[in-house]
């Protein structure tokens, strides 16, 4: 399913995040208003089936992903929801006109905020239409266990990406426009967050505390037998 999203941004949160001074508010507010008028965030998602699992991999709709953490997280899951969400080429083109260092930084932060909210909105929509009471997601490149190179497989989940998305996966497995993210949404009762396994400090997008014992407790000693699932 292809869906356009309404761009959103928390102005007050951005002001605090960027340590704006009062004499900068007017200029920043104008930039943000302009961005919200121009932005057309978009998302593509689908329902897919977990067909096979092993200790270090999982097969979803015939496509193999190599990730122990993803495989364990999907142990009791039959249906998952791969997605691609972008802040949009319109916003990228807007941001490129700001070449002065400070304005460029503001523009980048505005793009990140609009993308985060777009992902939140599409995940909420996926949860609602599929009656997921509790859910989580994983994203290739967020953890060493699931490298960014596997964005290729996520793109392969979609046989036809609408030209309106205006996205491209490069040879280095990065996406253009850069404010684009891929992921897999799934039902989850363990309140999983990528951040729980990421030791990176001072991350403004952190949404859960790092747990240095979680990998060993939940993932390292898990023994799984490769099996085909019937749905």
General description of the model:
The chain is of the alpha+beta class and 231 residues long. The protein has a single domain (2-228), classed as NADH Oxidase (3-Layer(aba) Sandwich), CATH 3.40.109. Helices cover 33% and strands 19% of the residues. It contains seven helices and eleven strands. The strands form two sheets. Strands 1, 2, 3, 4, 5, 6, 7, 10 and 11 form a nine-stranded antiparallel beta sheet that branches. The chain has a two-stranded antiparallel sheet with strand order 8-9. Strand 4 (58-60) and strand 5 (63-65) form a beta hairpin. The longest helix is centred in the middle third of the chain and has 29 residues, at 101-129. The two termini are 22 Å apart. Residues 224-231 have low confidence and may be disordered.
Q: Structural class from helices and strands?
A: alpha+beta
State the end-to-end distance. Answer: 22 Å
**Tertiary shape:** globular
- Spans of at least 5 consecutive residues whose pLDDT stays below 50 are 224-231
CATH class call: Alpha Beta
Q: Give me the CATH architecture, please.
A: 3-Layer(aba) Sandwich
Q: Helical region count?
A: 7
The CATH topology corresponds to NADH Oxidase
Helix content: 25-40%
